[in-house]
Request: fold
Amino acid sequence: MSSPFPVPSSRTPLATSFAPLFTLIGLAAVATTQGCRLPSTGDKTAPDGTAVETPDPRSVAVPPNAALLPAPGPYLLHRIPGVVDNVDGDTTDLAVRHADGALAATWRVPEGGRVRNVGTALSPDGRWLAYVTGDDPDWHLTAPMTKPLTLHVLDLMRGSEAFATRLLHDDIERDLRRLAGDVAVRYFDGTPTPSAAATDPPGVPTPWQPGWAAEDVLCAFRSGLGVVAWSPASTHLAFVGALDGPSGDVFVADVAGWQVRRVSDEPTHAFRLAWSPDGQWILHEGAAWCGRAAGDVMAETTDVSSVDGSVQRHVWGGSGIGSWLVRWPDGWLGDHDAIVHQESNGVGCCDVVRLDVRTGITRSLGTWAGEPFVIDRPTRQIILSGNFAASPPAETTKRGVFVVDADSGAREQVHDQACRVDAWGAPERPFVRLQGDGVEPCDAAAFGKGVDDVAIGPFGRFAHTYVSMGGAWRVVVDEHGWTAFDPDGGPHAYHTQDGIAGVTFRPDERGLFWGANDRLWYADVPDGEARAVGPLAEHALNPFDVAWLMVAMQ
Reply:
């Protein structure tokens, strides 16, 4: 493999300046962040930020209305700290910014509403915004829900509510208690073992301790409650609720009339939704309880439903173990082909399966344990990293990075180390392997089928790749900052900063935003200086939670 791009051990400062950060009480603070561009033309300083726009919370009361925004857009939406009557509240306030970071408006979701995820709440066409109001079930089912949990949809073109539905039926607490009892019986016989006190870590509930089942059933149920997913054409909204039964099921609302239909009927609680590219199918995963070992909800079933609910296919599940791939959902290869992972032995090994959702026919592409797989639709390839064996026929498991043809099942090993793989974006070089998990460090390199490696590293641990919408620019983020690569694949610029949470490019690829240290940052592409443009609200699900409103409504 060709030598990786040499990053200097001490990154060269580019530019130096200071800017006051004015607070609401008039105090100023000064801080510096170093950054540099390659090739270097001399020592300068990149500013830590120009005046951070922190709107007075008392004035943030404008309801979302895209018709009031100055044309033409696009606009970046992101979550900002929300305050109700000068007291921290559980509401969602959104900043609406121009493509250069300038503040255009601040929106407050009505009725104390909250947006679970900004990126999924906004429809692809920019017209609809989904949010919820009301009470979630208490973790221990001890506090009564006094305000019904309700899903709302705002029409941003008119600035008014278009649709609302309750997410829970009246007897949901009773049903959840019954499910907790079923889980305790189904997964464990409830009999204490003599060695329990010696083997269980302190503070970790065991199945026979009071409240264990209820807490973990609630964990799985709440993981999906309020999850929404817009179809690619913005014609349908899929959401998870318990409108007419004990479990969290998948429902679909048609924007033409807002009729709601249930499209799943599983005993598990749905918590992840993925639309097919043509908007005719919904892939969904579910779980009956949260796995203690993984510390998160674990996929125990995979199912697929047609948009009208007439076809519901159970792909796999019911093992009682669940997949350890807690953060990486299954995905779509095409309009009718899905790639799913199917738990095979309960220790993180999964069968990689191609599914034809029209017929239900599946084909195993191999058994694999390791990092998440990546699907490339144009080339119909799957990239896997970890321990992998073809099946059938069975053969000795090999470790490394593999490219698998989803149609023929043919595979090629492209690296002998198990490095995490990210999407890269360029059609001729669609993937990039990144730093390993700290045990087996790997050089970072872009590669594709039949294409020689192009060195782009090395980087620190747990690096991530972000690609511009047109695929021209790439940014790789590690614990030290970000490095940008130009359309020819060469390193162009880098910026040193700790704690970067995520990156998004402007739709025209002329700038990028990133989150770090509770602030939103911006730089022009390719050679802009970094500047802080506003605050970011703390958010447990995703600290960098943004969406692009592509057009101004007329």
